[in-house]
Amino acid sequence: MKKKNSIFSIKGKTVIITGSNSGIGFVLAKDIKKMGAKIIRIDKRFDKNLKTDDYICDIQNKETVNEIFKKIKKKYKKIDGFVNCIGISISNSKSFRNIKVFDETLNVNLRGAFILLSECTKILKKNIGSAINLTSIGAEQSFPHNPSYQASKAGLKQLTKSFARDFAYLGLRFNNICPGYIKTKMTLASYEHTKKKMIRSKRMILPRWGEAADIVGPVVFLLSNASSYITGSDIYVDGGWTSKGI
Q: Which of 77, 84, 81 is nearest to 43 (CA)?
């Protein structure tokens, strides 16, 4: 008798992960592949070979994204899940009022995400497809010298909810994972700065910085059938940052 997979299992699912050359996206691709899922990676370059199906792409170019998704559709027919980890942050006291920085950040983090989501709706499996955007606690609270990042992530949060509403008729689900301070290349400068690290650690209920591996469980849950009644929602993976009072 064939053993049925757990509702938490993602074995056999085909999942696209964008921004998966490094950071959180890379760890997600590596760990989810180990769980038996087929992984398709999309990024502007690839430095590490995971023996996945990789596509180099500038997500700001709608025509390029369209061509890549056509190739994916031809090869796989339908996709079970989509995880968008692409994001840039240009934060310093000199550039935060620079319109070029603002435009570039929104073009990647928000406009690019819109293009990706629009294409993935065409190939996600009806009544089972699950799409996830990685936003940030910056979508909820203000942080210094980084208005473009916060605006882009706040917009992305609402974009996810709009897609959840508009594509519910197909049975597609769209949710946000909202990380706090996770140790990646993007946050390395703050982590290695003694004072900044201490200030940020004190803002958390769990007094430690997160690891990329801390994002894996929530993503797997949203990709699995265990979350079949969850859409348009936010899951915070921030050590309690957004919940802490005094």
A: 84
Among 84, 87, 88, CA closest to 40: 84
Neighbours of 217 (CB within 10 A): 13
Contact 155, 163 (CB under 8 A): no
As annotated, the active-site residues are 149
- Domains annotated for the chain, with CATH where assigned, are 14-236 (3.40.50.720)
Q: Please report, in tens digits, the pLDDT of each residue of the chain (246 residues total).
A: 556 779 999 999 999 999 999 999 999 999 999 999 999 999 999 998 999 999 999 999 999 999 999 999 999 989 999 999 999 998 776 777 899 999 999 999 999 999 999 999 999 999 999 999 999 999 999 988 899 999 999 999 999 999 999 999 999 999 999 999 999 888 888 878 888 888 889 999 998 999 999 999 999 999 999 999 999 999 999 999 999 987
Distance CA 38, CA 24 (A): 18
- Of the candidates 160, 153, 152, which has an alpha carbon nearest to the alpha carbon of residue 104? 152
**Predicted structure pTM score:** 0.94
In contact, 214 and 187? CB cutoff 8 Å: no
